[in-house]
Amino acid sequence: MKFSTRLLFASTALFAAFGVCGCKSSDDSTINIGEVASLSGGTATFGQSSHNGTQMAVDEINAAGGLLGKQIKLITEDDQSKQGEAGTVAKKLISRSKVSALLGEVSSGKSLEMAPIAQTAGVPMISPASTNPKVTEAGDYVFRICFIDPFQGTVMSKFAISKGWKKVAILTDTKQDYSVGLTQFFKKHFTENQGTITGEQSYGSGDKDFKAQLTAIKAGAPDAIFASGYYNEVALIAVQARELGITVPFLGGDGWDSPSLTEVGGKAMEGCFFSNHFSNEDASPVIQNFVKAYEAKHGAKPDAMAALGYDSAKILFDAMKRAGTTEGKALRDAIAATKDFPGITGSITLDEKRNANKPAVILTIKDGKVAYTETITP
Ligand code: PHE
User: Fold this and answer.
1) 231: nearest Cα among 209, 263, 200, 270
2) Structural domain range at position 84
3) Per the confidence metrics, is the pTM higher than 0.90?
4) In this structure, what CATH number is given to the domain that contains residue 110?
5) Whose CA is nearest to atom 12 of ligand 1?
C-alpha cells in the first residue's frame, strides 16, 4: 500500500470514528434545526406565534416521512425577548446541537445579533419576519422571507397621504432597530411628498408612562401619529393618548401584530391602521385551509408571525430537498435559489440581497377586532 493511500485510509477511519466530516448531523438519525424565538418576555406573542407556525411545518413534513431519509428535529431556544440572549442561544444551537440551519428571530434587533454568528459559522439562517434592511447585510448565509422596512415605511406614508393626513407626529422606540429604521423610512417618504412632521418623540421598550411625550405631540396638533414600535408599548400609548384627549388615529407597522394590541389597547385602538404581511381574513383557499388547521391546533386564528414561521420552515425544507444535503454551502445556495415558492404569505422569490419582494396588507381595528382593508403591491 502506498503511503498516500494509507494516509487516506487512516484519515477516513478517523473521520468515521469521530464523525469529523464537516457535514453537520450526518451521523444523527435526525436533521437538527435550531429556532430562536421570544417565547417569554416583552414580545412573547411574536415568539409563540412564529414557533407554532414553524412547529406545524415540522410536524407536517415528519408525518409525510421526513426529509432526506430522516426526521426533522426542531430545537427551540427562548431568548426571553432580551437583548443579548438571541446571540447566546444561536451560538449554543450551532456548537452544541450542531444544527444545520437557524430559523428566527422575529424582531430585527435579535436577528441582527444572530446574523453575524450564523455567517461566521457557515450555518444558513432564515428570519421569518425581521424587516430591518441591515439583517441580511450580515452576509450570504442570512436570508429573510418577508418584505423590508423601506417598503413598509413607504406603504404607510402613502396611506397617510391618501387619507389626507398631511401633518403627522412620530413616536419611536429607540431601543429597537426595527422602530428606529421604520421611522426613518416613513419620514423620508412622507416629507418628500409634502407631508409635515409636527413633532418627534421617543421612548424605550419596557417604558410604561408616555404622558410627557404625548403632551408634546398634542401641542403640535397632528392629523395622525405614526408609532413605529411594538404592540405592547403601542397599546399603552394609545390608551394614555385618549386619556389626554388625543383623538387622531395612530398608524404603525407589522410590530403591532399581536392579540395583546386590542386586549390591552381596547377602544383606544379603534380606527387605527397598521401594515402587515398577511390577513387571516383573506378568502383564498390556501390561506383559509391554513387558518383552519392552525385554529384546530392552537384554538386561535394565526397572526402574521405564525404564517411567516410556517413559510420559513417550508422554504428551508424545500431548499434541503433541492440541495439533497444539509451541508452549509450547498444549502445556502439552494435557499438563495428560492423562486416562486407558494407560501401562505404569498409567492416567495429571494432576490440577490436575500430578501423577499412581497405585497403588504393594511389592517385596521374595527369593533375591537383587526380587519383587512387593502393590499399594496411593491
Ligand atoms: N418586522 C418586525 C421587526 O423586524 C417584527 C415583526 C414581524 C413583528 C411581523 C410582527 C409581525 O422587528
Assistant:
1) 263
2) 12-147+285-358
3) yes
4) 3.40.50.2300
5) 107
